[in-house]
Design a protein that fits this description.
alpha+beta; 196 residues; Cytidine Deaminase, domain 2; two-stranded antiparallel ribbon; six-stranded mixed β-sheet
Length: 196
């Protein structure tokens, strides 16, 4: 079947290609009840979050997990979004924010392990964290930070520069949280200057 239309010169007919069928894409979200002690837990500190995901230190390759939280910092969903080699992984920003958007959460934290045991972030980790922070700001998602886990529960939080061991610290006070956010702002400014 061909279609024709009138166009161009007066009375000229041009042949148009037949209409191609468009694929129909349907996305459905279904609620599945899974018993998991982490889901529903209110995260009160960086140390607590590091302790909750300390099991990631056992992996021989880097893995990145997105932790999605509601307005009360209750963990609602977490998912592995990338897996790499012993010294790195590749992931797109879309892969990072997709789970938080699909689960209708308001907050995001990222956690990844360093299989060699040193939780110090690489320059690439820092640049990636800055990009995630920017995209979260644009989408109205609260970015809680990016933890790098080492061996024996050690961690480094990239935005605040905070280091420690999961489970060692007490719950953060309001002053400590404000101080951490101020420090995060300074680190972000430093990263932006370095990237320019």
């Amino acid at each position: 079947m061909t279609r024709s239309r009138i166009g161009g010169e007066e009375g000229e007919k041009r042949e148009m290609a037949p209409a191609a069928p468009l694929p129909r894409v349907e996305v459905r979200m279904t609620r599945t009840w899974v018993r998991n002690p982490l889901v529903g837990h209110a995260v009160r500190s960086v140390e607590e979050l590091a302790a909750m995901f300390a099991w990631m230190e056992m992996y021989a390759e880097e893995r990145l997990v997105a932790v999605n939280m509601d307005d009360g910092n209750r963990l609602r969903h977490y998912a592995e979004i990338a897996r790499g080699g012993a010294s790195g992984l590749a992931v797109s920003l879309l892969d990072v924010v997709r789970p938080v958007l699909l689960t209708n959460c308001r907050g995001l934290a990222l956690i990844h392990n360093h299989p060699l045991g040193d939780p110090s972030p690489s320059p690439r980790d820092r640049r990636f964290t800055l990009r995630v922070h920017r995209i979260c700001q644009m989408l109205g998602i609260r970015f809680h930070g990016h933890l790098v886990l080492g061996w024996d529960g050690s961690f480094h939080e990239i935005l605040t520069g905070r280091e420690g061991r999961g489970g060692d610290g007490e719950t953060a006070t309001a002053a400590e949280i404000r101080s951490g956010h101020a420090r995060a702002g300074q680190i972000i400014a430093d990263l932006e200057r370095a990237a320019a």
